[in-house]
Amino acid sequence: MSTSDRYDVIIIGTGAGGGTLAHRLAPTGKRILLVERGDFVPREKDNWSSRAVNVQAKYHTKDVWTDKDGRPLHPHTNYYVGGNTKFYGAALFRLREADFGELRHAGGISPPWPITYDELEAYYTEAERLYHVHGERGADPTDPWASAEYPHPAVSHEPRIQQLHDDLARRGLRPFHVPLGIMLDEQRPNASRCIRCETCDGFPCLVGAKSDAQIVCVEPALAHANVSLLTNARVTRLETSPSGREVSAVVVERLGRTQRYAADIVVSSCGAINSAALLLRSANDRHPNGLANGSGVVGRHYMGHINSVLLAISTTPNPTVFQKTLGINDFYFGDDGFRHPMGHISFVGKLDAIALSAGAPPFVPNMTLDAIAHHSLDFWLTSEDLPDPENRVTLDRTGDIVLNYTPNNVEGHTRLIRKLEFLLQHLDDHMHLVPRNLFVGNRIPLAGVAHQNGTIRFGEDPRSSALDRNCKAHDVDNLYVVDGSFFPSSGAVNPALTIMANALRVGDHLAARLGAGARAAEEAMA
After folding, report:
1. What does the pLDDT read at residue 3?
2. How many domains, the chain?
3. What is the DSSP letter of 285?
């Protein structure tokens, strides 16, 4: 291995964790290599094509995993610079303050984190600034305390969503504006980078106005001469020194060739499923059960939330273009009738007839798919699933991913659906709640891994966690993990902002470890 193949830091993955970490470390002057399995998302008209994105799944990986019964699983995930943030809906929530402690659910206990909300708060504030988050502090009844206002005003509701907001408020609820990471200027629309289109949630942004990790973090990081990016490069394993205490080589398959790179610090940020698989594939004599797996927890405790998309079809038209602006958290921690957490209600991007054709809803009298699309409110419901060691990532005999998952803690989610149904029936006598057949029952299927987390949990005790509180492997001195793997519990909001905030926190730790903390801090404030 030549000296040109050695770096101060190698970061595997360029999404919410890896991209944000690269941005944080770039000002240190340390030599940094970003390794990305995919390439840049091609800029093309299909970026905004509902048929290409929703029906043909053009941008999904062609990888095939298997489930616990050996059936093929086609994961809804993407390998590109920017990771899954290229396609996310840009809803950027903080975990609730109570989510960091032990919470009793109907289905069991959600365990506490080794750090508190207070320790992460300043990094949440920085992440909101970095990712251009729009919101209204304090309108959400479960909002945790914050040291600063949102950097940008809340995204306004279009008339049909405003009507729903007002109807819900009249019933005593506290609907709020969803915090969104988009580069929108509603006061100066002609100068706004974001055009507030219908092809945002689930689509790559053709005009670069969604705050994804490529646009916000990777490209600015690459402006530093000390940062390099290797695309179309799949990391197949991590090799260690004879002692097993440090990663000595990052093995990469690229363009039909095997390459090796080395660094003082190696960071995995491939997503909770692929990071766990990478460590399991990296088993050796010193780590027979997988790298950094002395605790036996690597791959275990997989969580992805219990998610549903529900169509509320009404005689009232819904001409909304940008629908994902309203949220309801009144039942996040339960209510008087159910003293356990239920979860979060908001919206997906507005569904059109083409998207609906991929899984037409049950028969609605006298309504075509176009008519359904023009009259539906398209809700997204999220509830917390609990960490179960038997919900896990393993490998088959050829080293391919097996995802073993059985849903748990479902009562809260069932009650959340009933709550929404009750509310809508009392707002509009002609409203029907219809699950999309694209999903299993009402729920996003196992292949929907957008919220993946929990497979390499952090904690104080090396016997029950793989990472310490700084997300360094207990068993390997120079290995860190900064994707959603580190979560010991999942909460009931999108994990992206927490991954970003934690990457900034770990970035400060790494800068100090590399002796570059002061320089990075000075440039970040400049």
Report:
1. 59
2. 1
3. S
Q: Which residues pair with 152 in a beta bridge?
A: 134
- The 3 state secondary structure assigned to 168-184 is HHHCCCCCEECCEEECC
Q: What CA–CA distance (Å, rounded) separates 152 from 181?
A: 9
- CATH number of the domain bearing residue 176: 3.50.50.60
Closest-CA residue to 472 (of 235, 247, 233): 247
DSSP3 helix / strand / coil % (the chain, rounded to 5): 25, 20, 50
Strands 247-254 and 233-240: antiparallel
Residue 328's pLDDT is what?
Answer: 98
Q: What is the pTM of this model?
A: 0.96
* Strand duo 306-313 + 32-35: pairing: unpaired
Q: Which residue has the tokens 């054709």?
A: 357
Token pair in block for residue 108: 């069991």
If DSSP codes are grouped into helix, strand and coil, which group holds residue 420?
A: helix
For strands 257-268 and 479-481, give the pairing. parallel
Q: Is the pLDDT of residue 42 over 90?
A: yes
Residue with tokens 């993946």: 452
- Residue 231 sits at the vertex; the CA angle it makes with 40 and 255, to the nearest 5 degrees, is 120
Which residues, 6+ apart, have CB-to-CB distance to 511 below 8 Å? Answer: 24, 25, 28, 517, 520, 521
User: Could you tell me if 270 and 385 are in contact, meaning their C-beta atoms sit under 8 angstroms apart?
Assistant: no
Write out the residue range of the structural domain in which residue 374 sits: 3-525
pLDDT of amino acid 458: 98
362-402 residue pLDDT tens: 656 667 889 889 988 999 999 999 999 999 999 999 999 99
Note whether 189 and 351 are within 8 A (CB): no
